[in-house]
Amino acid sequence: VNAAIVATNCHASFLNIKLALVVGICGAVPFMPDIGLEIILGDVILSNGIIQYDLGR
After folding, report:
1. What is the rounded distance in angstroms from the CA atom of residue 54 to the CA atom of residue 22?
2. How far apart are CA 25 and CA 51, in angstroms?
3. Are 31 and 39 in contact (CB under 8 A)?
4. Contact, 4 vs 52, CB < 8 A?
5. Is 8 helix (H, G, I), strand (E, B) or coil?
6. Phi then psi for 30, rounded to 5 degrees?
7. Contact 20, 7 (CB under 8 A)
């Protein structure tokens, strides 16, 4: 099941949801050595949205 579709449907069906956790999803987080930020295993990443990028590949 596509996580973006599920998240959209949950938000449309349950209007009072303030927090949703999507776990087990392989996401991409850029490493920016110039500002000293490194994302490593175990870090918690917060996002304000989910974007589908494969378009059904």
Report:
1. 18
2. 12
3. yes
4. yes
5. helix
6. -70, 145
7. yes
**DSSP label of 37:** B
Q: Domain boundaries in the chain? A: 1-57
Extract the tokens encoding 16. 């009072």
Q: Is the separation of the CB atoms in 38 and 25 below 8 Å?
A: no
Q: Name residue, tokens 């589908």.
A: 52
Angle at CA of residue 39, ends 43 and 4, nearest 5°: 75
* Residuewise pLDDT in 10s, the chain (57 residues): 577 777 777 778 888 877 766 666 565 556 666 777 777 777 777 777 766 666 665
Tokens of 51: 């974007």
- This model's pTM is above 0.90: no
